[in-house]
User: Fold this.
Amino acid sequence: MSNTYTTVQWNRQKRRYDKIMVGGMALYLLVFSLLQLRFYPNVTPETLIIRATGTLAFLMLHIILCIGPLTRLNHRFMPLLYNRRHLGVATFLVGATHGLFNLVQFHSLGYIDPLVSLFISNTHYLSWQDFPFQVLGFFALLILFLMAATSHDFWLKNLSPATWKKLHMLVYLAYALLVLHVMLGAVQLEQSLSWIGLTGAGLILIVGLHLSAATLEKKRLLAQAQADAILEGFFEICQVEEIAENRAKMVFLNGENIAVFKYKDSISAVNNICRHQHGPIGEGKIIDGCITCPWHGYQYYPQNGQSPPPFTEKLETYDVKVVNGKVWVNPAPYPAGTERPAAIF
Amino acid sequence: MKPELRHIHRRIWQLWALLLPLSFGLAVLVLPTKVTQPVLYDQMAVKTSKIEQTQETDWLRVQIRAPDEMMPRQLQIVLKKPLKVPVAQVFWQNVYIGRLGAKGTHYFLLDSSQVANPPYHLDIRDPINKAVLQTITFHP
Assistant:
């Protein structure tokens, strides 16, 4: 990391965020430990630490995964997003404590390396009930480590925002691994209805929130694209499926007679009047990549309205776009023979 | 987030919405039968007086105690040393009857069906590492 970066750019909000986070974590650990000692008086300190840190890390991951969709659904949750990276790093540290204690308690008493033991002590990889669930937790922790290690702005800038974001989307895989880790691990051992209920409720919450936010955002983007199209002078014509392959739909818009052709997953629009004897171009079809007039076979390229050489006839062209499976056309004509990009669907 | 990343994000959660509840349901389906019999620790147990059989290893002593007017037949397991594994499950005739905890004495009640077909096999298993820690056979 170069000297142009500081470890943490502290400010009043970040300090407040972190104080609340650490306070919440401490409170959880205290309450969880007291409850464990009340209901499981014979629990050993190691087991208590494993249980407390495991459940806390899983809970924190739920909170992290809720923040993104919540802010998209309601901007009032935006302050939670502000310092989410610190919450992510804290989650990794708690998860690492859980992993470390597990490794020591479950795998360090044998003659083989604890990490090797983790992978080979239980080899029922093809069994659902006896699956080595600790391996799932290991890979989830590895992802959380990767995210915590690259959480700084230095990595954001040097990896590029797109790559960084793709890398950090691995958290969804980590979440899936941890759900299986819990369901095939603690739940199978304890057979506790509470754990099943809580994990199931968390699953419904996380998946529900992400799907709701994604659906809402898709609707917003669609409405925005349609509003933009209207502002730019486009008119909605029809669904893409309403036009047969290599055929056209003919429309009159603002006095323009337009033929909208569909071919090879593309849509292009040209003037509907053939330059030869004013035949209806739109009643023809695309043959050998050219719009072919049904009257006398005059041909034009759909993208630019030009006849293939050595012919020199040209048609006016129009802008086309496809939004959510619907064809939109701007009736403002371009000079005959002007190349316009086809709309890909 | 760029539109293509947003699209990937949506697809991931649509996939998770199918796969995770399915995995969750399968995990619930393969849950071992819940053991309703509590593990009794020494201070809580009401042990019967007559010992029918005893077997001993370096780390545990196992006794079958005869029933009396108050209590059914009992399996008594005394852990002489702390367990080296955090979870140890007790299987009687290949049926899971409970878990061992801290060092000390554990009692499990055996009903008549569990002592109907001798010889009796007792396994103590480590469910995490899928290992059998001890096997003991009792002949009547």
User: Anything to note?
Assistant: The helical segments of chain B are 3-29. The beta strands of chain B are 40-41, 51-56, 60-65, 73-79, 88-92, 95-100, 104-110, 120-126, 131-138. The interface with chain A takes residues 1-3, 5-6, 8-10, 12-14, 16-17, 19-21, 23-24, 26-28, 30-32, 34-35, 41, 84-87, 101-102, 127-131 of chain B (CB under 8 Å).
